[in-house]
C-alpha cells in the first residue's frame, strides 16, 4: 500500500509542476505532451503496484496506450507536413 501511495504522490507532483509551467508561459501543447505521457506511465505503474490482475488491467492499458499515441503522434504529423511545405489537413 505504501508503494501505491508514493506513486500517487508522484502523480500529484507532476500535475503541480505542469500547472506551474503553464502559468509561467511555456507552450501548453508541449507541456501537455510531456506531462500527459508521464501521467500515463504513473497510472500504469499504479495499477500494476496496486495488485490488479492482467485481465482487469488490459482494457485500461489499451485506453492509456491510445491516449499516449494521440499525444505523441498529433504534433509529429503536423510538423512533418509543415517541413514538406504543405498545409496541415483540417
Secondary structure layout:
Blueprint (H helix, E strand, L loop, with lengths): L1 H22 L4 H22 L4 H30 L7
Structure described in brief:
The protein is mostly helical and 90 residues long. The chain is built from three helices and no strands.
Explained architecture:
By secondary structure, the chain is mainly α. The protein has helices at 2-23, 28-49, 54-83. It has one domain (2-83). The radius of gyration is 16 Å and the shape is flat.
What are its keywords?
90 residues, mainly alpha
Gap from first CA to last CA: 47 Å
Strand fraction equals under 5%
- What's the count of strands? 0
Structurally, how many domains make up the residues? 1
SSE succession: HHH
Q: For the report, how would you describe the main beta sheet?
A: none
Radius of gyration: 16 Å
Overall, the morphology is flat
Low-pLDDT regions: none
Helicity, as a percent range: over 70%
How many helical stretches? 3
Provide the residue-averaged pLDDT: 77
Structural class: mainly alpha
Amino acid at each position: 500500500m505504501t508503494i501505491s501511495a508514493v506513486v500517487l504522490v508522484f502523480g500529484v507532483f507532476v500535475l503541480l509542476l505542469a500547472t506551474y509551467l503553464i502559468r509561467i508561459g511555456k507552450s501548453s501543447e508541449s507541456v501537455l505532451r510531456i506531462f500527459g505521457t508521464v501521467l500515463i506511465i504513473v497510472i500504469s505503474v499504479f495499477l500494476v503496484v496496486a495488485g490488479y490482475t492482467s485481465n482487469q488491467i488490459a482494457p485500461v492499458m489499451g485506453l492509456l496506450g491510445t491516449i499516449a499515441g494521440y499525444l505523441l503522434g498529433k504534433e509529429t504529423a503536423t510538423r512533418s507536413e509543415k517541413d514538406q511545405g504543405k498545409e496541415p489537413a483540417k
